[in-house]
Design goal:
3 domains, Immunoglobulin-like, mainly beta, about 500 residues
């Protein structure tokens, strides 16, 4: 009995010890399929100047906060060669996974679940290919279906139950069909499948965010999303087509990589081919230090064709003033005339005198010489002359902190705008040398050729900048503890 038990244990150990993973075990007569590094057919760089397959679409939206948004979408031929043909044989990006499925038939028309022969998974590593899952086949004639989602993620398992796979937005889906491949018994039982050239079956898309030149500083942060009308598709092996499904909308994120310029492109995202598409782009961004959230705009009648690249240009503009230092600075200095508060039409405009309606004491609603009593020392927003600009309570007098941020944006000394000189801040806002009014004894207007002095909402503080004609050395000073309550200054209003 002991001998029988020992013999049985030996048999069990022998069988267990010889078992292997099914994906790694192949019959002796099979041929191992190896893969040469694939390439792509390249993104189309056809010149669309005269024959666009997607006419330019433009939409404009005006916001209540003074920001205007315009979107126009068109083929992205910028930064690409305009050769009139597709770019051929481009290298694949590194670290991309792809799959090779074998069917025992000579052409695509005979692909079926019955002819399924197996699959292998591979990863591009530099100029070589690493095998994630081996593909081994009997000698014979095969059609290979090769596909990739354009990323490094592991691919979901596959079996002989279907001849199609799902595809969605955000995937750089690529395919290559290799029909009528004859595999013979090689000396080392290996066959190398080469000349795999993937073709993009989706469109490539990105967003260009543009700040208005002369009115805004750099865009320093940007993120957003795009809402699409169609979100999934099915790729069919038997006819090599991507069939987009009619479904509910989907939102896909758009990312920017450390933007810091007037014009910044997002990273590419990939879209299913779509006709007559209506898209909504929603962005959170910071321009000129001012943050905006959930700014959305819609464009419709768009076409996204496979293997083509598109972009939407989102143009930000304002006719309210200049965006720098985190706020909007008015187009011109404040003045009072005929019982009405106004802005000078140009940023360099000022008159400079004792009765011009543009020089104000601290927290006084009316300009000099309206003040007849001692100057106030406490700020009251109800007496802010900026708040009287229509629509009411939209504008305000800048605080010392607002001017500090303006100064931190950087400045150019003795900049020129029109016929006036002054400082230009953040390469955006020009403030002229407007001088100031001394009025305690005999009113005297001074320093308007070389100093700019502007009122703040903080008692005793003004914003001052000057060129070398003042004291031999140009500079800018904020905060400046001035403490001369009987002097009066220009005001450049701001809105948040």
């Amino acid at each position: 009995m002991a001998k029988i038990i020992s013999y049985t244990i030996f048999i069990l150990l022998f069988v267990t010890g010889c078992s292997t993973d099914e994906t790694e075990y192949f019959p002796e007569d099979n041929v191992l399929v190896e893969i040469k590094a694939p390439q792509t057919d390249g993104w189309s760089t056809k010149d669309y100047i005269n024959t666009r397959n997607c006419p330019e679409k433009t939409t404009v939206r005006k916001e209540e906060d003074g920001l205007n948004i315009k979107i126009h979408t068109l083929p992205d031929t910028k930064r690409t060669a305009k050769s009139g043909i597709n770019t051929r044989w481009a290298n694949m990006e590194d670290n991309i996974t792809f799959r090779v499925i074998a069917y025992k038939c000579a052409d695509v028309a005979n692909i079926s679940t019955a002819n399924y022969a197996g699959y292998g998974d591979y990863r591009l590593s530099g100029s070589s290919v690493q095998t994630n899952k081996k593909l081994s086949l009997l000698i014979g004639t095969y059609t290979f279906v090769c596909y990739s989602f354009g990323n490094s993620n592991s691919l979901a398992g596959f079996d002989n139950s279907t001849t199609n796979i799902p595809v969605s937005n955000g995937q750089n889906f690529m395919t290559c069909i290799k029909p009528n491949i004859n595999i013979n018994k090689a000396e080392d039982s290996k066959y190398t499948l080469d000349n795999i050239v993937f073709k993009h079956l989706c469109a490539r898309y990105r967003v260009l965010a543009k700040a208005q030149s002369g009115r805004m500083s750099n865009i320093t942060a940007c993120s957003g999303s795009i809402t699409l009308p169609k979100k999934t598709a099915v790729y069919s092996f038997t006819d090599n087509t991507l069939n987009v499904q009619e479904e509910n909308t989907e939102t896909v994120n758009i990312l920017w990589n450390n933007p810091d310029a007037m014009e910044v492109y997002s990273e590419y995202i990939y879209l299913l081919p779509q006709n007559s598409a209506k898209i909504t782009v929603s962005l959170d961004f910071t321009v000129g230090g001012k943050a905006y959230t959930n700014k959305s705009i819609t464009a419709d009648g768009l076409t996204f064709t496979a293997n083509n690249t598109y972009y939407s240009s989102i143009d930000f503009s304002t006719d309210q003033g200049y965006i720098v230092g985190g706020v909007i600075w008015a187009n011109g200095n404040l003045y009072y005339e005929n019982n009405e508060y106004k802005f000078f039409p140009n940023t360099e405009d000022f008159i400079g005198g004792t009765n011009t309606g543009e020089i104000f004491y601290y927290n006084a609603l009316l300009p000099y010489p309206s003040l007849k009593t001692d100057p106030v020392k406490t700020w009251n927003p109800a007496n802010d002359p900026c708040s009287k600009i229509a629509p009411a309570n939209t504008w305000r007098t800048p605080s010392s902190k607002d001017f500090t941020k303006l100064q931190e944006a950087g400045y150019t000394i003795d900049a020129v705008s029109g016929s006036k000189k002054g400082f230009k801040f953040g390469n955006t806002l020009f403030l002229p040398y407007c001088g100031y009014l001394q009025s305690l004894v005999t009113p005297y207007y001074k320093d308007k050729d070389y100093r700019g002095l502007y009122a703040t909402s903080d008692y005793k503080y003004i914003f001052v900048f000057w060129n070398s004609a003042y004291n031999g050395k140009a500079g800018c000073n904020m905060p400046n503890d001035y403490n001369c309550p009987w002097d009066a200054f220009c005001i450049r209003c701001i809105r948040d």
